[in-house]
Amino acid sequence: MKLLPFLYQVGGSHLTHEEDASSYLVTSDPPVLIDCGTPKGLDVLQKNLKLIGFPASSLGL
């Protein structure tokens, strides 16, 4: 879910798993994931990242 031109919500109880907190992607260079979720929603989170053009392999540390 795009929140701002440079910020997406890619995880949370309504997006990945009911027990997840929110996860955000900042589309900087390199892109940065702020993930406050649980491992239970990881597969869906990775799919959500790919859907918006940022596979997990593109993320910075």
Report low-confidence residues grouped into runs of 5 or more.
none
Shape: globular
The topology string of helices and strands comes to: EEEEH
- Percent of residues in helices comes to 10-25%
Distance between the termini: 22 Å
Q: How many structural domains? A: 1
Largest sheet: 4 strands, antiparallel
Secondary-structure class: alpha+beta
Report what the structure shows.
With 61 residues, this protein is α+β, with helices and mostly antiparallel strands. It is 16% helix and 26% strand. The longest helix has 10 residues, at 42-51. The termini are far apart. This is Metallo-beta-lactamase domain-containing protein.
What tags apply to this protein structure?
26% strand, single chain, 61 residues, 4 strands, 1 helix, alpha+beta
Give me a quick take on this structure.
The protein is of the alpha+beta class.
